[in-house]
């Protein structure tokens, strides 16, 4: 785009969930008005909602206190102040816990981000293109972005801010149940639970945050039938400590060089904390805060080992459930209407009467056993192996050699500036990856404040690049 005698660079941000919205917001604040065109491709009406925060389910809550959720690094209470100043909690009588912390509905956070960006959109500082991106191709001096609405944009810089792929259902379930009405391979699809009846026996495959959300949604809808949640280790997401604590420990001086060494240090720190009357929450808060430095100090082989053996334990302690959701889980466990199995799925059969027979293999040995269900819901983690095939434009970029999967198996390969690394091993100057897909290099990028901080990093790198791209026309 040209303004007067100055060629104004164009930045295309693919994905307008929280990450894409945060990159756009910080980029607009970093670049002087009129010095760049920022275009965000997001089919949803709201910027900042995405898969996580664009939900109408009232029981879907943020899983950390509102005082720790923010679009502005360094201003931790920005979201909490917005909630109080706008009256966003007026219809949410359960948002505030007994100790005064706010665990708002996830939709409230999405509206907060959208409201924060709205003045920039209204002023033309950010353009919201309500369409999906179909193709991104290298063009002379930049990129050609083609959208599903038929539009084509010539961009000087592209930021890929799409989310992780949908869950990858266990093959044993897909082979037996694919296409069946009682099989829900992705619990995040709107209306996925419409066919579940009040007395149905439900199997939830997975025991993490999404599984907790599913159980809470079913409970709120009046479901009374037995629910079974299963994962290989049978670990459920933990709750929050009732009293605030400062992060405890130090894991960076010096940083561990192996997964085993890191595990030993964590165990020692947990013992030390317990001796001082401090719970594990404070130790994991320190781990989260130092996560990027811890991760980057580990060789790739040790990162892989960490993901393979320790990630499930990290996930259930790092990604805690809101007290309101925890109360539902505890109540159903106590009532016997929820059971958790530590087992793998050995077989699944669709019976003539429409019910589903599932064979479990217990984690600690013992004989396999069979249980019967009316519905099976998959809540496993992202299908990382399907990252490239999850978006046509990513697949095409990979085929062109512009990007590749990272060596850890968590996302796309990027350098320390979050620029995509192509198949030739070189980083693209103007193709950036923001958010969860950059986890292989940056480590923990699945929750705030880490995603906020990474979005700001990407915005700073793009702004620096765009400042150099503004050249006079002669």
List the topology elements.
Layout: E1 2-3, E2 6-7, E3 10-14, H1 18-30, E4 37-41, H2 50-53, H3 78-86, H4 106-122, E5 126-129, E6 133-139, E7 142-147, E8 152-155, E9 157-160, H5 171-177, E10 183-184, E11 202-205, H6 209-220, E12 227-231, H7 259-275, H8 280-289, H9 291-297, H10 300-318, H11 323-335, E13 338-350, E14 356-362, E15 369-373, E16 375-378, H12 387-390, H13 392-399, E17 419-421, E18 427-433, H14 439-442, H15 450-469
Parallel strand pairs: 3-4, 3-9, 4-5, 9-18, 10-16, 11-12, 11-16, 12-13
Antiparallel strand pairs: 1-2, 6-7, 7-8, 13-14, 14-15, 17-18
Could you explain the architecture of this structure?
- It is a single chain.
- 44% of the residues are buried.
- It contains 15 helices and 18 strands.
- The longest helix is centred in the C-terminal third of the chain and has 20 residues.
- It is an alpha/beta fold.
- The strands form 4 sheets. The chain has a 7-stranded mixed β-sheet with strand order 10-16-11-12-13-14-15. A 6-stranded mixed β-sheet has the order 5-4-3-9-18-17.
- A hairpin with a 5-residue loop joins strand 13 and strand 14.
């Amino acid at each position: 785009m040209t303004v007067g005698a100055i060629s104004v660079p164009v930045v295309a941000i693919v994905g307008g969930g929280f990450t894409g919205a945060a990159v756009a917001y910080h980029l607009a604040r970093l670049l002087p008005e009129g010095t760049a065109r920022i275009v965000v491709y997001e089919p949803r009406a709201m910027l900042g909602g995405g898969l996580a925060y664009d939900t109408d389910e009232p029981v879907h809550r943020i899983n950390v206190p509102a005082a720790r959720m923010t679009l502005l690094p360094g201003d931790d209470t920005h979201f909490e102040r917005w909630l109080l100043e706008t009256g966003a909690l007026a219809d949410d009588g359960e948002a505030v816990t007994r100790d005064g912390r706010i665990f708002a509905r996830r939709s409230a956070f999405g509206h907060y981000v959208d409201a924060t960006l709205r003045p920039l959109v209204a002023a033309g500082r950010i353009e919201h293109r309500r369409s999906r991106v179909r193709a991104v191709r290298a063009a002379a001096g930049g990129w050609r972005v083609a959208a599903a609405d038929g539009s084509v944009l010539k961009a000087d810089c592209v930021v890929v801010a799409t989310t992780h792929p949908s869950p990858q259902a266990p093959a044993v379930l897909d082979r037996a149940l694919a296409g069946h009405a009682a099989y829900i391979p992705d619990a995040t699809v709107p209306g996925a639970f419409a066919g579940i009846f009040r007395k149905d026996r439900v199997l939830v495959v997975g025991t993490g945050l999404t599984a907790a959300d599913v159980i809470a949604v079913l409970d709120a809808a009046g479901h009374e039938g037995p629910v079974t949640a299963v994962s290989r280790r049978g670990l459920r997401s933990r709750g929050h400590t009732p009293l605030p604590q400062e992060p405890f420990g130090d894991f960076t001086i010096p940083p561990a060089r192996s997964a085993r060494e890191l595990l030993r240090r964590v165990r020692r720190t947990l013992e030390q904390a317990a001796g001082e009357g401090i719970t594990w929450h404070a130790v994991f808060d320190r781990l989260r805060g130092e996560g990027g430095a811890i991760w980057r100090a580990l060789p790739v082989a040790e990162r892989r080992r960490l993901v393979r053996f320790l990630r499930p334990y990290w996930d259930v302690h790092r990604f805690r459930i809101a007290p309101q959701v925890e109360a539902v889980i505890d109540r159903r466990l106590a009532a016997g209407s929820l059971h958790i199995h530590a087992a793998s799925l050995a077989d699944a059969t669709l019976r003539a009467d429409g019910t589903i027979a599932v064979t479990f293999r217990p984690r600690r040995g013992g004989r396999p056993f069979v249980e019967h269900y009316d519905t099976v819901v998959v809540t496993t983690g992202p299908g990382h192996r399907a990252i490239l095939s999850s978006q046509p434009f990513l697949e095409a970029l990979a085929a062109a050699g512009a990007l590749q999967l990272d060596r850890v198996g968590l996302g796309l390969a990027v350098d320390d500036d979050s620029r995509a690394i192509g198949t030739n091993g070189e980083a693209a100057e103007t193709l950036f990856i923001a958010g969860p897909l950059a986890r292989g290099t940056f480590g923990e990028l699945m929750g705030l404040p880490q995603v906020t901080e990474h979005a700001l990093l990407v915005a700073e790198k793009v702004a620096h690049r765009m400042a150099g791209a503004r050249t006079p026309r002669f």
